[in-house]
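Changelog note: in this version the structure field was regenerated for every chain. One regenerated record is shown below for reference.
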Amino acid sequence: MTVSPPPPTDRAPDAELAAARWLVRRQDGLAPDEATEFEAWLAAAPAHRAALERLEGTWQRLDTLPAAELAALRARTQAATQPRRGWQGTRRWMPLAAAACALFVVAGGWVLWQQQPVYANSFATARGQQLDVQLPDGSVLRLDTATRAEVTLYRQRREVRLPEGQAHFSVQADAARPFDVLAGPLRITVVGTRFSVRHTQTGLDAGGVRVTVEEGRVRVASADPTAGAESRLLGPGEAVAADADGHLRSAPVAPAAGALLWREGRANFENTPLAQALAEFERYGPTGLTVRDPAVAAMRINGSFDLRQFGAFAKALPQVLPVRLQPRDGTTEIAPR
């Protein structure tokens, strides 16, 4: 009794298996009746052609695998195609089944090889510290105070996760390897450009994410591919902000020099509540300043300030706001005048 291969269906696993069988059978050429059967299979469902094209692409790219990886795949292929006891198939079908199995082993190995990182590292700055990091691809990161960045470079893409803090990115252009930054609910995608991402729980834009573009183009979208949220394409001098849920809104942008002043240890306040300005200073170090009166906390402040000169900032406050500095319990309270 002979056993023929089961008829293919449009279900994904069956489509992949049938595609592998057809790919193997076509290596030796198809008889006219087989060619007719093949064309009918292709036309039966869009998934059939897609599965075949995926396997053909994988097969053509195998020559880029390192010799060691090819040797390992060859060993796994031989193991996978060993005859099994109790096999009842025909002699004609057994080589096809074995070859199809081998194709799946090799294709799976290709996918795994592509998914393996070629570089992975984590970086962090202490309170008040900034750090420059050069990546193997030539990109440069400037990490602000109290920032964590997790970098993973793959063969076909580059990824940086920013769980907390602020960073400036000078991305080396590489169209074949997009560069993604994941910050809170957002995914920022570029090829080669200069931009800044802020994702902090205190200070300016607390709890949200802000993206400011200095050069090139940047696409900002939800980090969740199933969210279906809108995306924005930003150019030089543009910025976008998002809340904790990823809702995007255009953000006012100071002149390029002002928007990225933090790289020089400065902050640019524009109609900023005093409490929020103090929280921004606290990200860089203890200020010894407190505010107890809600009305004082809500007062607005403008200007550019050195984030490491807490004393100079405190002395300037009575000159620009109706407040006074009052020593209290080992700290300096900013009280109403």
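Spot check on this record: Residues 1-12, 80-94 have pLDDT under 50 and may be disordered. The chain has nine helices and 18 strands.
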